[in-house]
Amino acid sequence: MNIPKALFLSAGLSFALVSQAAETVTIATVNNGDMIRMQRLSKVFEQQHPDVKLNWVVLEENVLRQRLTTDIATQGGQFDVLTIGTYETPLWGAKSWLEPITGLPPEYDLEDIFPSVRQGLSVNNTLYALPFYGESTITYYRTDLFKQAGLSMPEHPTWTQLGEFASRLHQPDKGQYGMCLRGKAGWGENIALMSTMANAFGARWFDEKWQPELSSPEWTAAAHFYVDTLKKFGPPGVSSNGFNETLALFNSGKCAIWVDASVAGSFTTDKEQSKVVDSVGFAPAPTEVTDKGSSWLYAWSLAIPATSKHKDTAKAFITWATSKEYIQLVAETDGITNVPPGTRQSTYNEAYLKAAPFAQVTLQMMQHADPAHPSIKAVPYVGIQYVTIPEFQAIGTSVGKLFSAALTGQMSVDQALAAAQTSTEREMKRAGYPK
């Protein structure tokens, strides 16, 4: 790999690592493109720290979440660095399962991290993870197909409008589908998208007394829209599609409209990955009756479990991988549009905003997302596409399976909602809510 010498010298923040023998640091991460890049570029870190060997465990999103949750809850100690998000970090930090992140060097410039992201990774103002990339939700669409059909994307689209566009642009005989959305079951897969859609329709997960509201008129309207639109205008096999699968469909030219994580912007505009580089448009996340909670806020982040035997080295690595120097390294080696987005204010400079056509709308959505007020109605919880309580992982996954079953026609939307309401009520009662 050809890495500029000056950059190589500045790419790591200096830490004194006292080590006699080679120290192996085991990193668990998700198989998303940005993390695969981090693994490739981590050779720089190993060159700077010859006594350190990085051992990578790269897993599919649902599998990663399951493995890490089991390991941390049982204090298994398999990993030194965990890739987790704004859901797990405050919950696990509060249980003292994670190392507090303190004493960062001045050049790390913690104040440069978006306040909403810092807050999402903190408990009582103590940070428990460092953000690798942050994301919100945006609408991706094919400008060429819109033009051919005489359509124009509104400045602030609604889900209903997107559904109408999808019906006009759906040409399955040509391998072109009106709308692609996540259908794979999982609290971080289809439920992430469904929650923001439900919020936009005016729904909430729980009322102020922690009573589930999954059979409310608002949830019902959102779920019918989701299932009906994907059945009519979605790709085949949609219940197997998570973020990575849907990204691949969009990049291969099969989707007219796709609503998903803003982090996909760099992949849709990468000539090596995308066939539609010259005809991708970017718009804000769709709203419906409200824009509250219509776009999520998430940060894939790097944390150190309390069980790690290599905490100093793990801290040196996560500090390096989330630093301004790492961002500069990506810009130098892979191009400015590929830098990890959504974490640092300094990333959104004139050069980046000019080079990355998705950057402005990403910034707008990141600033708009408000996890403390995710619904038009009052709620007792924090979190937009999830609810920050330990029970949500099980609840979201169980509800996600029901929506997946509705997509495949195993049950009706109303049956799925009724079952979701019942199972969530049972789970909350078992957990002792209201507390």
Give a description of the structure.
The protein is α/β, with parallel strands linked by helices. It folds into two domains: 5-135 and 298-355, 3-Layer(aba) Sandwich (D-Maltodextrin-Binding Protein, domain 2); 137-295 and 373-430, Periplasmic binding protein-like II (D-Maltodextrin-Binding Protein, domain 2). It has 17 helices and eleven strands. Helix 7 runs parallel beside helix 9 (217-233), helix 8 packs across helix 9 and helix 16 packs antiparallel against helix 17. The radius of gyration is 21 Å and the shape is globular.
Q: How would you summarize the topology of this molecule?
A:
Elements: H1 5-10, E1 23-30, H2 33-48, E2 52-59, H3 61-73, E3 81-84, H4 88-94, H5 115-120, E4 122-123, E5 126-127, E6 130-135, E7 137-142, H6 143-148, H7 159-169, E8 177-180, H8 190-200, H9 217-233, H10 243-251, E9 255-261, H11 265-268, E10 280-284, E11 298-303, H12 311-321, H13 324-334, H14 350-355, H15 359-368, H16 392-407, H17 413-430
Parallel strand pairs: 1-2, 1-3, 8-9
Antiparallel strand pairs: 3-11, 4-5, 6-11, 7-9, 7-10
Helix pairs in contact: 7-9, 8-9, 16-17
Structure summary:
With 435 residues, this protein is an alpha/beta fold.
